[in-house]
Amino acid sequence: MNAQTILFLNQKGGVGKTTSAVNLGAALAQQGKKVLLVDLDAQSNLTSATSIDGRRPGMYEVIAGKLSAEEAIQQTPVKNLYAIPSNINMAGLNIELVEEEEREFFIKRALVPLEESWEYILADCPPSLGLVTVNAMAWAKRVIIPMQCEYLAMEGLNLLMRTVGNMKKAINPDLEVLGILFTMYSKRTNLAKEVVEDVSSFFPQLVFKTMIPRNIRLAEAPSHGLPITVYDGSSSGAKAYKVLAKEVTKRVARNQ
Ligand code: ADP
Ligand code: MG
């Protein structure tokens, strides 16, 4: 095995990064893939959404060299789905790492040893382009950009595309955008349609056909510590993430 390594990346908060990491991860796991989720955000929403124990050592402690990434892995309630937690200490890392040599490569050094044991490693990034996110981009090969259909969406997207391009040139030649994922989509609004058309015309190869609808069950699931496919498998949100898992599997195979 040589893991597909995928980041959920967008410098904006509240666009569906964590929701997509958790629920795509669970859908892939339920389709028989061996999936590891990595929480890189100090807010640790992924940690609570998957019912793993955020008081046990997580990515911060791994990066600080207190334990190996392997030792930080916990089992989630979903078969084949495992996760490494985060905690509030991650918030200090952007500053702490500045002093270090090779400061871009802490996450890479920590996670590369896991790659041969997993089919997918999905990492949930914080809502910033700080050093933690730079570290994530120095490690992973693929990026999924979740985005909401809102006014000025293209501006944030262009900045993000430039950032990924710069990282590819300077630090990680393997880095590619796997796709742009529309979340909280509502086909009844004209703005949503316009944003999708706009983004699709600039990045025709990148927009995922699957769009995640706005679905209240997706917003409820994290408070039960469960992915949507377990919390309410028949909801529109669960169906969308299952279809997305198939699309991602195909796209990943094509891009190899
Ligand atoms: P991010 O990780 O980018 O900050 P989240 O995944 O935490 O974004 O999503 C932000 C909020 O929107 C959360 O409360 C989440 O439950 C909710 N949410 C995410 N996707 C959907 C959706 N498709 N429908 C309804 N609510 C959603
Ligand atoms: Mg988040």
Describe the structure.
- It is a single chain.
- The chain has 256 residues and is an alpha/beta fold.
- The protein has one domain: P-loop containing nucleotide triphosphate hydrolases (Rossmann fold), CATH 3.40.50.
- The protein contains twelve helices and seven strands.
- The protein has a seven-stranded mixed sheet, sandwiched between helices.
- Helix 8 links the parallel strand 6 and strand 7 (176-183).
- The longest helix is centred in the C-terminal third of the chain and has 19 residues, at 236-254.
- It is globular.
- Magnesium ion (MG) binds at residues 17-18, 41, 45, 124.
Give structural attributes.
ParA family protein; alpha/beta; Rossmann fold; 12 helices; 43% helix; single chain; binds adenosine-5'-diphosphate; P-loop_NTPase; 7 strands; 14% strand; AAA_dom; 256 residues; binds magnesium ion; DNA_Partitioning_ATPase
Please sum up the structure shown:
With 256 residues, this protein is of the alpha/beta class.
List the helices and strands and how they pair.
Layout: E1 4-8, H1 17-30, E2 35-39, H2 45-49, H3 59-63, H4 69-72, E3 74-75, E4 81-84, H5 90-96, H6 106-111, E5 120-124, H7 131-139, E6 142-148, H8 153-170, E7 176-183, H9 190-202, H10 216-220, H11 228-231, H12 236-254
Helix pairs in contact: 1-12
The structure holds adenosine-5'-diphosphate (ADP) and magnesium ion.
